[in-house]
Structure formats: structure tokens, C-alpha cells
Amino acid sequence: MSTLTAVRKGNVVAIASEALTTFEDTRLPFDNDAAPEKIFAVETTQGTAYVGVVGYTAHFLVLKQALEDFSSSDEGLDLSSREAVFETFRQLHPILKESYFLLPESGQEGDPYESSQASVLIASPGGIFGVYDMREVHGYKRYWAMGSGYPYALGAMWARYDDLEPGPLATLGAEAGIAFDRSSDGPVMVYEVALAPGE
User: Which Gene3D superfamilies match (predicted)?
Assistant: First the structure.
């Protein structure tokens, strides 16, 4: 898994990740990984947003390409609100099945909806949004974390929210994941985006 963090404070949203890739018990550390990124930038109708992906490594390239296709469409990519993010991922689900061969039945027995099999943390000019397997979308007013290191990251960000700016606080959360989660390791990569006026 991994540790992804995002922080919203003032007019800035920051998103950070650590850089370790794992394959069951095997580690692919940063200095031997040609593509250690877990966050990618995408152009939206409001400006640049950053998308962090946890879970299967295959999701990164699939979601990056699919969201870039949305971005270059006539309508553009809208990640400005909880409702807009939901609609984007609702439209994306059949594309994932048809063009990228997603197996939605791999979810838990008794799930009420097909699973998109990915968890995503978004830092956009509209704020912080988390998207989970069944396309449930949450918005966060201050901070959030995803991945196997998330409990440590949340604790660190909770303790220092009032003291640090968004970038350093998101970095601290990822560093807490690195310190305590066996599936997370450095270095930390952090990106910032300005909130849209009125957000």
C-alpha cells in the first residue's frame, strides 16, 4: 500500500505521498524505481489538480490516462466539488470496464454496487476529495490520509494542524506513515494548489 496525505489551510491545498512500491513481500525502493510517483497532475476546468492513487500499481497509469482523456474532451475535467467528482467517476466506471478491462466483481460479496477497485485522494482548486471503491466521494475541510499508513498520518496531522502550513503538514503526515507503516518509505513528494476564489 502506501501513505497519501492532503491538507487544506488558508487558500492552499497540499498533497503528499511517500515513494515505496511493494509487491506482496517484495519492496521496490525509490532509488531503484524508474517511476516512483503516486501522485499525478491533471488539468481541470478550474486549473491544475493533483490526484494520488493507492492500491494496485496498475491503477496509476489507468486513471492518469483516463482522466487526461476527460481533461482533453470538449467538456473538460471537473473536480471542483463533491458532486462533480462523483459525476466524473460515475462516467469513468464504464470506461474502466470497457477500455481498461476492470473486473468490478472483485469487490466484497454483498456490495450494493460494482466496485471501481481504486481509492483516490484529490487536491484541486475546489478542495480535498477522497474517492473510494464504490465511487463514494467525501470532501474534507482540513486534512485526510489514505493507504496503509493513514492512521499514523492522521494522528500526526491532527496534532500539528494549527502549527504548520499545508505543505509541511502534508509532508509530516507522510513521514509518520514512513516511520510506522512497513509498506511506506521515503522520500516524500509534495505538491500544492491554490484554492479557487470562494472555496
Answer: Glutamine Phosphoribosylpyrophosphate, subunit 1, domain 1 (3.60.20.10)
C-alpha cell of residue 178: 514512513
128: in domain: yes
Q: Count the domains in the chain.
A: 1
Domain span including residue 172: 4-194
- On whether residue 123 sits in a domain, the answer given is yes
- pLDDT tens, 118-139? 889 999 999 999 998 768 899 9
pLDDT in tens, 100-112: 776 666 556 666 6
10 Å CB burial of residue 68 (0-12, 13-18, 19+) is middle
For residue 151, what are the contacts with CB-CB under 8 A and spacing of at least 6? none
What are φ and ψ of residue 73, in 5° steps? -75, 170
- CB contact set of 118 (below 8 Å; sequence gap of 6+): 53, 55, 56, 59, 63, 131, 133
